[in-house]
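To illustrate the input format used throughout this study, we show a single complete record. The first block contains the structure-token representation of the backbone; no residue identities are included at this stage. The design step must infer an amino acid for every position from geometry alone.
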């Protein structure tokens, strides 16, 4: 019998095991604060993007239940058929008001937002300019657009300007994370916008990790640099997800009325998908109110960030590990090899801490890391626990068992 390419998959999975690149899911159940039951074991988690600790907030739970009682659970259809509920309509208006931008469009998922809106903005014959560390959904949206892609080195705005100046494309789109998901550093938004104005380009910002956390009242990275309200530019589209600091699910894009109307009419992932459930929109409306009102969550988070960086600054003096410069809730501790990163992860697990190792292709070869995600749900004692555990591991305490035990970590 002739062999088939389908028969290659067992061997290809074995290659992932050999390279320590096979992932596995873990079953989690929320406990209290920043603790989770992970495969039945109580763990202190530093891996959630629930930056403000809102995911289990009673106000959100009650709002979701009330929304389900009033409007049902499922949307039933595309927003352009019969799926655009009263709750979704109200959420869009409140998101526009909150971000101080003219109009917002609510999507069921962040990935679906970016892979849909980018091809709606540019296409074959146009040019697209992308930071090399952009999130996968921006990269995939760029590829789907069929525009010519210019990939510039991370945060190298000189290279971006040269590429913009050299392009003769009729339409130019610059895409960038506002807060980069694996390093936690922040884009220079004013300079990005200035380049777009100089070279007749549109700027799309993905603020998945900044919305709710950065800017006055958590209004996001665009508000953080004062580019909303009267200073809002018609050259900016602001995208943010709602499953991180907002604690629920979905995403939105906000900008000028005419750009949002165009996206509503032309974004395939919006037009041809069932709308987000109205119960989630109800929960998100409650979340936006809490984000705006409870400044203490951001203040507490800022103190935790300073505590962690201060404590790890001492720990890292005796290791080759590197803490990437970041003022955000994302604190990347670069370990190096896949094996060592998994070993440190396992050492933390043995101490009751869940901090997953991030490996290629998510990050470049040789930069496997622990992506420490802080939350307002953490206490100062929680952060001290993490610092002490990393200090013990850095000092050479036993890390883990044999290599084979790490393959599915």
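Output of the design step:
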């Amino acid at each position: 019998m002739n062999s088939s390419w389908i028969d290659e998959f067992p061997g290809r999975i074995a290659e992932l095991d050999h390279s320590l690149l096979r992932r596995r899911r873990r079953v989690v159940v929320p406990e209290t604060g920043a603790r989770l039951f992970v495969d039945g074991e109580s763990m202190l988690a530093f891996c959630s993007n629930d930056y403000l600790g809102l995911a289990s907030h009673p106000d959100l739970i009650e709002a979701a239940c009330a929304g389900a009682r009033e409007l049902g659970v499922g949307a039933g259809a595309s927003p352009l058929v019969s799926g655009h509920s009263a709750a979704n309509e109200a959420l869009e208006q409140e998101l526009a008001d909150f971000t101080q931008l003219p109009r917002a469009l609510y999507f069921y998922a962040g990935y679906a937002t970016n892979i849909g809106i980018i091809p709606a903005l540019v296409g074959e014959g146009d040019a697209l300019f992308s930071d090399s560390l952009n999130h996968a959904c921006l990269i995939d949206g760029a590829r789907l657009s069929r525009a010519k892609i210019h990939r510039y080195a991370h945060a190298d705005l000189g290279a971006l300007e040269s590429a913009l100046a050299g392009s003769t494309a009729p339409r130019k789109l610059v895409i960038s994370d506002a807060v980069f998901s694996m390093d936690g550093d922040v884009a220079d938004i004013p300079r990005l916008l200035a380049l777009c104005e100089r070279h007749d380009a549109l700027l799309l910002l993905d603020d998945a990790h900044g919305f709710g956390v950065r800017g006055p009242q958590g209004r996001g990275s665009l508000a953080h640099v004062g580019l909303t309200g009267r200073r809002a530019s018609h050259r900016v589209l602001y995208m943010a997800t709602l499953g991180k600091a907002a604690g629920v699910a979905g995403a939105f894009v906000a900008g000028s009325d005419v750009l949002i109307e165009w996206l509503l009419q032309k974004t395939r992932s919006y037009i041809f998908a069932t709308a987000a459930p109205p119960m989630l929109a109800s929960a998100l409306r409650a979340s936006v109110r809490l984000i705006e009102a409870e400044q203490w969550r951001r203040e507490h988070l800022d103190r935790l960030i300073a505590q962690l960086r201060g404590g790890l600054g001492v720990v890292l003096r005796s290791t080759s590990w590197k803490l990437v410069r970041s003022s955000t809730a994302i604190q990347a501790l670069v370990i190096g090899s896949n094996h060592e990163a998994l070993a440190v992860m396992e050492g933390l697990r043995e101490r009751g801490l869940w901090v997953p190792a991030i490996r290629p292709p998510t990050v470049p070869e040789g930069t496997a890391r622990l992506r420490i995600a802080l939350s307002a749900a953490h206490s100062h004692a929680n952060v001290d626990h993490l610092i002490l555990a990393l200090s013990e591991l850095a000092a050479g305490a036993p890390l883990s068992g044999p290599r084979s035990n790490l393959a599915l970590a």
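Structural context for interpreting the output: Residues 69 and 279 are 8 Å apart (CA to CA). Confidence is low (pLDDT under 50) at residues 397-409.
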